[in-house]
Design goal:
heterodimer, A: 6-stranded mixed sheet, globular, B: 4 helices
Chain lengths: 611, 299
């Protein structure tokens, strides 16, 4: 797909507001010249908004190109059955489903069923699970559905995940659903770029901070110097500048190039989900964005989180949650007003997706302004050492170091096992735990070259830090430490062995990898069939990576080894070290990668062999 | 330069520029990925291992240790290599970066100058064409063009190896073998240092450094310095041995988009030693202040 028809240099910059707000009518094209295919039949516009629901056991999906216009510039999207998002598929646990996927694109395509347990040949990763679907061909997926909950599906080919091939997947449980609600809505968040995503990646290869429009300036310095004194302002910058790292490197892509969508609708389009007063509404939040972490809240409404990644959890009441591409959260809400805003600001605070829950169409509630963007803290760069250093330098609570004085307790986090929920009775709090995130850090020898820009020796291990931009914001923010899968771990066995992998990158070169080795140079990770293995992911970068293992569950644990939650996608924060257990019960070859699409594509990707 | 690094400068920037130049002049060794430099500058010497650079300790983990002998695209459950998944880490990208395309005015004379590079390749190995020169009265007065292989050596540093071609109007052309490094020094200084060797025992050293001071998100000030040294006199081209010429520039740039950045600026150019004598003989001044206006472009 080559959506760029005019050299971008010659196009006057759009008013920023239009990028942030988008056009109200995303899919409708007015006065669009015949697009691309000369003499061909006129193409119907892409359907946007809440997707059609298809249910049953037989599905026919057709992937093709249809036009969209989210910003005032007509572009081609890749869509499933002409819809963005793709149709919502509704399956039933225990059924065998058959999905015939026809490729009407000029390039290969695929569908990956994100989070679904199935035979590896049905997993839909070209080059690993199957050859992909060539233009004109149809591939038939068939497998037994062994789980229930909220999931999603998307293309795993090229950049189609960014250009529209994603949709919700809802599996109704065989037995009664423990989550009782009067009505439900899918809230699928995504992001759209008018540029060819490959061109976006090329620009990042040219300049790693190409889309970061929030770099510290001299004006910022003088303002900080006036506020906190020149010395403190200088110190705050010194380490970053010495290390050639940016404290505002919160997201590679910003509203400069993205338009944020809720159910395929721009903020101006105001997607609306209806409810009757007094009803309990289940919202199935899916982050189907290519590259955006969202911070989601509904001002004035409590969110009761009941499910994470399709797996029911003990209900936990919060005001806000952050989730990355690939993750899902089911939330129960009971709005008291006639209209309230579902507000999802991007992690870098350059924009937001939003919509309305309303008792009738046309109602709107106030839309908040994005929070001010915070700098990454020293702890985000250096882990526990950063916290200690900052505490030593600034007396622990100096406002000079953004993020350091925050409630996440990072100054006593780090390599020591923190007390978590009183569930670690009998643990010696002074000693390193023998396993998991508290084990000594071992960098790979390939982490000392051009592919990495930093290594963290004393990582943060606490899971109750909501992350940069959410610390101490006055709202109750969900953290990984709050999650408790209802029925406990799927496998009572402890780990037979440990695998330690580091998440690595070089922002300057825009290179991303595991252990400093990109996919193309890597060897697979081997899980012995049937084993229970502990995976330690150690983040040697300053970005949060939503890590998605295909085919098997990732059972997240505390630093002390206490089971928390069964996930398919686990976000690992900057300078953080987390661990989870995997039961390697799915023979075959599987993908394992960061779900930020450009990180994945740049090489933060491994093949897993279960044999 | 490959990327506009725009941070705001420290008050002691002038001092740092001098320090940097001194370091560059001492040679590549001081700035190359050497752990000593990275550690000292990295500020990570809190009694712990450095966070950047350095070399792997002998007991560092083997990144292939978990493979169990498996490889991609062969063996159990694998698809054949012809169907291998290839992602962008194996893709070749390219870019054209025009750093200076400018009108220059000095002593009542005016001419045009250009400097830029185009690269094509992977993240770690690229073919690079660097070009700079001056055009006066519609003629190419002077040009320096290099064809280089750029290899990523460490986190922030690349090596460059290749050829340089000098062309001068009414002057003999010169060819050189080029060996250099470029990269990003602590505090975001862009540095380019290249040594040259040519037929007849000719040698040369070119040093460049550049810094971006971000005044606002769009407006930045870019000081730059350039020095050229020669090992041997080249009378035909008016070059003496030792430090031959130097330029210091200050450009105020406004980023309309990342790709289109107009600017105005001033440049101070000097010749030194025997080169200055040649210049005087040719009726040119030793020092010159130039006013420049132009734009940076990138594709």
């Amino acid at each position: 797909m080559k959506p760029s028809v005019v050299p971008p240099l010659l196009v006057p910059a759009l008013p920023r507001r239009r990028f942030v707000q988008g056009l109200a009518a995303g899919g409708v094209l007015l006065g669009l010249p015949s697009w691309g295919r000369a003499g061909g039949p006129p193409q119907p516009a892409t359907r946007t908004g809440s997707a059609t629901v298809l249910s049953g056991t037989e599905f026919n999906l057709e992937i093709g190109e249809t036009p969209v216009d989210f910003t005032g510039r007509a572009r081609m999207a890749t869509t499933v059955n002409g819809s963005l998002p793709a149709p919502t598929l509704r399956w039933r646990e225990g059924d065998t489903v058959t999905l015939r996927v026809r490729n009407r694109l000029k390039e290969p395509t695929s569908i990956h069923w994100h989070g679904i347990i199935l035979p590896f040949q049905m997993d839909g990763v070209p080059g690993i699970s199957f050859p992909g679907i060539a233009p004109g061909e149809t591939f038939t997926y068939r497998f037994k559905v062994q789980q229930s909950g909220t999931y999603w599906y998307h293309s795993h080919s090229g950049m189609q995940e960014a250009t529209g091939v994603y949709g919700a997947l809802i599996i109704d449980p065989l037995r009664a659903d423990p989550v009782a609600a009067d009505r439900e809505h899918v809230v699928l968040l995504s992001d759209w770029t008018d540029e060819d995503p490959m061109r976006v990646l090329a620009k990042l290869k040219m300049q790693g901070d190409y889309y970061n429009t929030n770099q510290p300036t001299a004006v910022d310095f003088f303002r900080d110097a006036a506020r906190m004194g020149p010395r403190a302002a200088f110190d705050q910058r010194r380490m970053w500048n010495e290390m050639r790292m940016s404290p505002t490197d919160l997201a590679d892509l910003s509203a400069d190039v993205l338009t944020y969508l809720m159910n395929g609708t721009t903020p101006a389009g105001n997607w609306t989900g209806l409810f009757r007063p007094g009803e309990r509404v289940r919202l199935r939040f899916i982050n189907g964005a290519a590259h955006t972490f969202y911070d989601v809240r509904i001002p004035g409404v409590e969110l009761v989180v009941v499910q994470a990644d399709g797996v029911n959890v003990e209900p936990v009441t919060v005001d806000e949650f952050r989730f990355g591409p690939g993750e899902t959260y089911d939330v129960l809400v009971q709005p008291k007003e006639d209209a309230c805003t579902i507000y999802a600001q991007s992690m870098d605070r350059t924009g937001y997706a939003c919509g309305t829950l309303a008792t009738r169409a046309g109602l709107r509630a106030p839309v908040p302004a994005p929070d001010p963007a915070q700098w990454l803290s020293m702890a985000d760069m250096m882990g526990a050492m950063g916290a200690d250093t900052a505490a030593a330098t600034h007396g622990g609570g100096d406002a000079a170091v953004a993020g350091m004085n925050h409630g996440a307790g990072m100054s006593h986090g780090g390599a020591m096992p923190p007390r978590q929920h009183g569930g670690m009775a009998g643990m010696d709090h002074g000693a390193m735990p023998a396993a998991g995130a508290g084990t000594p850090v071992r960098h790979a020898r390939s982490e000392y070259g051009a592919s990495t820009d930093m290594r963290v020796d004393m990582p943060r291990t606490r899971l109750d830090d909501p992350g940069v931009g959410l610390r101490d914001n006055g709202r109750r923010v969900l953290t990984l430490a709050d999650l408790r899968t209802l029925d406990g771990a799927m496998d009572p066995r402890g780990a037979e062995r440990e695998i330690e992998l580091h998440l690595t990158g070089n922002m300057e070169r825009y290179a991303w990898s595991f252990d400093g080795v990109e996919y193309g140079k890597s060897t697979p990770v081997h899980f012995r069939h049937g084993e229970r293995v502990r995976v330690i992911l150690h983040n040697d970068t300053m970005m949060t990576h939503p890590m998605h293992l295909h085919g098997m569950w990732s059972e997240l644990e505390t630093p002390g080894g206490e089971f928390l939650a069964r996930r398919h996608t686990i976000p690992v924060q900057p300078a953080q070290r987390i661990s989870f257990l995997v039961t390697a019960d799915a023979p075959g070859r599987w993908a394992w990668h960061c779900h930020l699409m450009l990180h994945m594509d740049a090489g933060m990707f491994r093949e897993v062999v279960v044999a | 330069m490959t990327a506009a690094h725009r941070t705001w400068g420290t008050p002691a920037m002038a001092y740092r520029t001098l320090r940097l130049l001194r370091a560059a002049a001492v040679g590549a060794a001081t700035l190359l990925p050497a752990p000593a430099s990275a550690q000292a500058h990295g500020g990570m010497d809190h009694g712990a291992r450095p966070m950047q650079g350095g070399s792997a300790p002998p007991d560092a983990r083997d990144p292939d240790a978990y493979s169990g002998g498996y490889v991609r695209n062969a063996g159990k459950y694998a698809l054949p290599a012809s169907q291998a998944l290839a992602m962008s880490d194996q893709h070749r990208f390219g870019a054209v970066l025009v750093d200076r395309l400018e009108y220059v005015r000095a002593r009542g004379h005016e001419w045009a100058a250009y400097e830029g590079e185009a690269w094509y390749g992977t993240t770690y190995d690229r073919a690079v064409i660097k070009a700079e020169g001056e055009v006066a009265s519609g003629k190419l007065a002077e040009s320096k063009t290099q064809l280089l292989w750029r290899h990523a050596l460490s986190t922030f540093w690349d090596t460059e190896l290749g050829l340089r071609f000098d062309h001068g109007h009414a002057e003999p052309n010169r060819q050189w073998l080029a060996v250099g490094f470029k990269g990003l020094a602590p505090y975001w200084f862009e540095v380019d240092a290249t040594a040259y060797a040519g037929p007849g025992g000719r040698t040369a050293l070119g040093l460049k450094a550049e810094y971006d001071i971000l005044l606002t998100r769009k407006l930045y000030l870019q000081p730059s310095v350039e020095l050229n040294l020669y090992g041997k006199r080249d009378a035909q081209r008016g070059i003496g041995s030792g430090l031959a010429d130097g330029t210091a520039g200050l450009r105020l740039k406004y980023e309309i988009t990342r790709q289109l950045v107009p600017y105005v600026g001033v440049e101070w150019a000097s010749t030194f030693g025997k080169t200055a004598d040649y210049a005087r003989e040719a009726g040119e001044p030793r020092h010159e202040t130039r006013f420049v206006a132009g734009m940076s472009l990138r594709f």
